[in-house]
């Protein structure tokens, strides 16, 4: 099973990859690099191409 996690650079985006990483699944994360200014930037349902 493959799981893609879009953290939308939000408050839990730095924690979620570790939680999902414990699953026995192929995981990929996007939008998991928050810097305090890029919340929801080029991610989420309004940017499915990413």
TrEMBL record:
Protein EC: 5.4.2.10
Protein's UniProt keywords contain Isomerase: yes
GO terms, biological process: carbohydrate metabolic process
InterPro entries (UniProt xref): A-D-PHexomutase_a/b/a-I/II/III (IPR016055)
Record keyword Calcium present: no
Gene Ontology MF term list: phosphoglucosamine mutase activity
Protein name listed in UniProt: Phosphoglucosamine mutase / FemD, factor involved in methicillin resistance
Species for this entry: Staphylococcus aureus
